[in-house]
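Example record

One chain of 291 residues, shown exactly as stored in the release files.
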Amino acid sequence: MFTLTQLTNFVAVAEELHFGRAAERLRMTQPPLSRQIQLLENELKVRLFDRTNRSVRLTPAGRAFLVEARRLLQQADHAATSVRQVSAGEAGSIAVGFTAASAYATLGRLLEVARAALPDVGIVLREMVTRDQMRALAEGSLDLGLVRPPVTDPDLAERPADREALLAAIPDGHPLAEGDGPVRPADFHGLPFIMYSPVEARYFHELVISLFRQAGVSPVYAQYLSQVHSILALVGCGWGVALVPAAASRLRYAGLTFRPVDVAGPDPVELSLAWRRSNDNPALGKLLRHL
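Predicted structure tokens for this chain:
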């Protein structure tokens, strides 16, 4: 089989149509260049050049092979460049998991950073609940996750990504929808409440339960759902009230009002970046340095 060196030598002679000039261009002497062309012709079992003492011309087979030789050299150069870019974290792909609620704000900012810092790296997005993201990160099918804390697997690293407030989502016309001040947790006592699923939305379920427990509040749980947009749809239909992350206010559902919630301490809704400590994807390391 011919080599890339032989292809490079052939292209030089084909473009110069002169062995002396081609040898000078390749920074070699003419005899070894002639030998390489002969070996290539023997390998292909065709004559690539018509040679006389006065001229060098490509044969029809040589003209056809010149097209293929250039294409093969371009592919080889592209492959080498791609490998170097992947090794440097400048190419390849990163599989990113995200929860549905994180897509309202945090995911967009992450993608902006990735686009600016790693324009040639593909981002593969997978919407998954935190529990499934943790499993995918541990198995290696996911590089980076936007998850709800805590991250308890010792093989996974965690970094705070965002923190936001809770808002009360209230049907228009409801008494709690009036006014501009914050709603107190006690205001939900005895009201129909659209609650998060304790399985698919465990983080928000436990957050809201803890908030109500501390306030001594007992709403009437009308439905249990896993996705914020579904909860808002029911609120807009008048099925009850709900607590949602502040970024959910970007969803323009008709028939509902958002009001702040009076909660002691810092904003309670947390989001983390998580990844496997042993992940050797160079692009992931570079992205983490920019986040």
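Notes: The chain has a mean pLDDT of 91.
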